[in-house]
Write a structure and sequence with these properties.
The chain is an alpha+beta fold. The chain has nine helices and eleven strands. The strands form three sheets. A six-stranded mixed beta sheet has the order 2-3-4-5-9-8. The longest helix is centred in the first third of the chain and has 21 residues, at about 55-75. The radius of gyration is 18 Å and the shape is globular. The chain starts with a strand and ends with a helix.
């Protein structure tokens, strides 16, 4: 099941933005990119984007972010803007991204993007490889930014399931569609043993369930299915979910 909603999207300002070339970017724990790498600095009303993927791809990512920002703003009365800047780093491919990934037991994590809130700013880093679904990765990581601003303490399964749900969002003019089935998740759910709910619901960022490649894929798939059921697949559960979220935020 998927849902289609009308939405008065604000015009995206990305098309009129100026672009400058950078030879370096902020980083810690890894060397800066080489001086011959051409990094684009693109600024939108809500984001600062540093990208190594080329001007066209960078503008597309900027437009995606601003449109999703507008969509969530029309769906929700929750806070979208942050009092500190939000920086997006888009790497050309996984090889370039690898030195800047979070470490797990001394090795780069198996991620295609991540969100890192800090005192001086919010940071999102993604693999912008054109062969991957860069839009889906951007949408997924933006949801983590949205959750950090509004729903602290959200269970990991709900946060990741929500991010996966919105990663398939499609914007067509003034129509917004979401809740499309994810073929990869469906294959896993149909052909693999499900994670027992007590294990799924208590997993955190340190759990093996979240950090081992095969188990993490199943964790994402089952979290997506559960959140899809709560917000899209059941009218009764969709009415109950706001009360659940209020209780979570209240501790």
């Amino acid at each position: 099941m998927w849902r289609s909603m009308r939405n008065p999207l604000r015009p995206c300002a990305a098309a009129a933005l100026g672009v400058t070339l950078l030879s370096t970017m902020p980083a810690s724990g890894a060397d800066l990119p080489g001086p011959r790498q051409r990094w684009i600095d693109l600024r939108t009303p809500n984001f600062v984007i540093f990208s190594h993927t080329g001007e066209g791809a960078t503008r597309a990512i900027a437009a995606d972010l601003e449109e999703l920002h507008a969509v969530l703003g029309s769906f929700s009365s929750l806070e979208l803007s942050s009092p500190i800047p939000t920086y997006i780093y888009v790497f050309r491919n996984d090889r370039d991204f690898r030195p800047y990934k979070p470490l797990r037991e001394g090795r780069p994590s198996l991620v295609s993007g991540y969100f890192a809130p800090r005192a001086d700013g919010n940071y999102i880093a993604i693999d912008g490889n054109a062969r991957r679904d860069a839009t889906g990765i951007v949408y997924h990581e933006y949801v983590h930014y949205f959750v950090a601003n509004n729903l602290p303490g959200l269970p990991l399964w709900f946060e990741e399931g929500l991010a996966e749900l919105y990663s398939s969002l499609r914007i067509r003019g003034k129509t917004v569609e979401f809740g499309f089935p994810d073929p990869y998740h469906l294959v896993l759910l149909r052909n693999s043993r499900l994670i027992p709910l007590p294990e799924l619901l208590t997993a955190d960022h340190h759990s093996e369930l979240y950090n081992e490649r095969d188990r993490k894929s199943m964790f994402y798939a089952e979290s997506w299915a559960l959140v899809h059921y709560l917000l899209v697949g059941s009218d009764e559960r969709r009415k109950q979910t706001p009360a659940f979220l209020d209780l979570v935020v209240a501790g």
